[in-house]
Amino acid sequence: MIDARVDEFLDSGTDAVEAAVRKAAADEIMPRFRQLGADEIVTKNGPHDLVTVADRAAEARLTEALTALLPGSVVVGEEAVHADPSVYEALHGEAPVWIVDPVDGTRQFVHGEPGFCTLVALAQGGRIHASWTYAPAREELAVAVRGRGATLNGQPLKAGSPEPGAVLRVATSHPDYTTPEQKRALLGLYTDGVAARPCGSAGLEYLDVARGELDGIAFNWEYAWDHAAGLLLVTEAGGTDLTLSGEPYRITGGNALPFTAARDTATAHRIVDLLAGR
User: Fold this and answer.
1) Domain 168-275 - what CATH class?
2) Is 121 helix (H, G, I), strand (E, B) or coil?
3) Would you say the C-alpha torsion 141, 174, 163, 246 has a positive or negative sign?
4) DSSP string spanning 97-158?
5) pLDDT band with cut points at 50, 70 and 90 for residue 156
6) Measured by CB atoms within 10 angstroms of the end CB, which terminus of the chain is less buried, N or C?
7) 238 vs 219: CA distance, rounded Å
8) How many whole angstroms separate alpha carbon 201 and alpha carbon 197?
9) pLDDT tens sequence across 193-205
């Protein structure tokens, strides 16, 4: 059940979150865009898993701002969890949780490409209640509130449905981040009637599903900071999400992978069937 504090916050505090996200990007991310020094980029879990001073500074700024906006809330941020994995357990607790990915698409950010974004979601009791997807280099801000719809730069987002008989456009987990077993599952999408390609920023792929420019995604990792904001954005735009077991995705984990988020229910089931080899 939603906490009264969260319910009240959703009535009056969403604009303040938008302001905090925009300020963190303006102060900590954009001044470093295409200005990073070699000593400001390091790897975490392998050569393709990059982190920069912008990631860390933006997450610190958002952690301070968001917890001040909603007293008693906590933050599960990508960089904080990397430093202390026990932070992730807050997703199972009773406190309202801000789920933060300060720079989603760090590889694109490092390469000077505009395809990155900041992701923030507000969750409690394992449910996502609101989300913000901000692509500062593209000047795009998408907001979703459970039961109240989704917008992009203030205009309603509607995912719609693919045209009958059209080739499905699907973004998948990037090969650099998949095991041989995971690759085999994703190969089910490389078939007639589907145009599959590796994903870029997960947050921006979800945004493209929500606005009908992409028909679906198929991902096989669970980190909540990559998915929470986008999942709510897609569902509030009229889409749906589905795991390999046929159940909705759970941000607390334990999902049957891969999973999909798609423009409509029929498309989600078609993608899952292909992933399952049916």
Assistant:
1) alpha beta
2) strand
3) negative
4) EEEEEEEE-HHHHHTT-S--EEEEEEEETTEEEEEEEEETTTTEEEEEETTTEEEETTEEP-
5) very high
6) N
7) 20
8) 13
9) 999 999 999 999 9
Predicted confidence band of residue 43 (pLDDT cuts 50, 70, 90):
confident
On the 0-12 / 13-18 / 19+ scale of CB atoms within 10 A, 254 is exposed
**117 closest CA partner among 126, 109, 129:** 109
Sorting pLDDT into bands at 50, 70 and 90, what band is 47? low
3-state helix, strand, coil in the chain (%, to 5): 40, 25, 35
CA 44 from chain center: how many Å?
Answer: 19
CATH architecture of 4-156: 2-Layer Sandwich (3.30)
pLDDT, averaged across the chain = 93
- pLDDT tens digits along 221-250: 999 999 999 999 999 999 999 999 999 999
By the 10 Å C-beta count (0-12 exposed, 13-18 middle, 19+ buried), 243 is classed as: buried
Domains of the chain by residue range: 4-156, 168-275
C-alpha dihedral, 265 to 127 to 222 to 114, nearest 10°: 80
